[in-house]
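Consider this:
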Amino acid sequence: MDFKVKQSPVNGVMRIPASKSHTIRAAAIASMAKGASVIHNPLISADTMACYEAIKALGADVSGTDTWTIKGLDGHPALRAPGTPIDVKNSGTTLSILTSIAALSSTPIELDGDESIRSRPLQPLLTALKGLGAQRAESKLENGSAPIVVQGPVMGGNTSVDGTSSQFVTSLLLAAPLMRKNCDIRVSKLNEKPYVEMTLWWLKMMGIEYKQKGGRQFLVPGRQTYFGFEKSIPADFSSATFPIVAALIAPGSDVLLKGLDMNDPQGDKAVIALVQEMSGAIEVTKEGIRVKSSELEGMEIDLNAMPDALPALAVLGCCATGETEITNVPQARIKETDRIKVMCEELTKMGANIKELEDGLVIKQSSLHGAHVDGHGDHRVVMALALAGMIAEGETVISTAESAAVTFPDFQQKMQALGADIQAG
C-alpha cells in the first residue's frame, strides 16, 4: 500500500493511542505472574498482537480485545506446541523480552520473526544469558540474530551485557526476579536509558526488589514472584511525536493532543521540552498538549534517550532555520531499518539538504518537493515521510505505508480527521 500526501495543515483534537512499550511490558509480566492480570486500554497494533500471540505460545492463557485478561504461568513457561518456533513477526521488543523469559524453561524454545527481525543483532543478550547459566542461547544461523534457540533454566549469578540496545537490559531485568539465585547485572554502553527506567518502574509497581548502583549495575534478588495485577495503559509519547511535528511544521496548524500523562516514565515526553527549545509553540494544559505551527530554530540535539524520534525530528530539521544536528544516537542504525541512512536517502529525494553522521544526521533548512519515496517497511519512517509530504510542493508517494500499523494502526485516519491530505492507495 502507498500513502499519497499533499500539502495540508492540521487542526482539531486527537486522542493518542496507547503505549507500545508499556503494553508489551505489561503482557510479558502478566504471562509470568501468579494469578490473573487485567490490562485495560492495550495498544492494538501489529507489534502488540505479535506479543499477545507469542505469550500464548509460551503457555499463558490470554483472552480479550479492548481489555486483555492474562492468566500467568508463575515463572514457568511451557510451550503449547513443543518444537514449533514462536513467531514475533516484526516486534523487536517482543523478541528481546521473551528471549530471557524463554530461558526460564528447561525445554528448548525457538524464537523467530520476519526479515527485519532476522537482521537485528541479539548476541549481547544471548551471551549474557549464557553467563546466567542458560544451557543454550544461540543463533541457529550463527550470526547473532534470529532464529535463536534458548534453553534454561537460567539460574542467576553474575553477568554483563552490552546496552547498545536497552531492550537487552529490559529483558534481563524482567526475568531476573524469577531466577533461583540473585542476579548481578552490569551494563556497558547504556543507550536509551528512559526505556530501562520504564522497566524499573514496572518492577517497582509489581513489588519486585532490586538495587541500582551507579546507573549501570543492577542487583536483583532471585526467587521473587510477580502477582496478577490490573493496569490501564497510558498514551504513547513516541506516537505523539508525529502529530506534534505535523502541527509545528504545517502552516496554519493548531492541534490539541489528549491522553498523554506527563508523569509517565516514557522518555519520549522530552520531545516537548526539546521543541520548546527550538521555539516551537507547544504547551501542556489541563485539556491536553496544545501545538501550533511555528518558526523553528535549528539546534544540536542529543537523541540518545529517545532514538525513535529520529525520523520525525529529521523532517522537523528541514523546517528549522540554520542547521539542526542530531547526534549520539548510533542505535538508530539497528532498528527496523538503519534509520539514519534511510531518512537521509529518502529526504534527499525530496530536496533536503541532509547528510549522515556516524551517530546521527545534519540537516539544513530546506524547501521540500514531492517525490516517490520508500518507506522501507519501517513504521516510523513511513509516518515521518508523510509529515514531509504535508509540507512539500506537489504530491509525495510513500511505499510500504501499511507498516504504520506496527505502532499506530489508525495513523492515516487520525491525521485525515485533523485535515491532513493523506490518501491510501
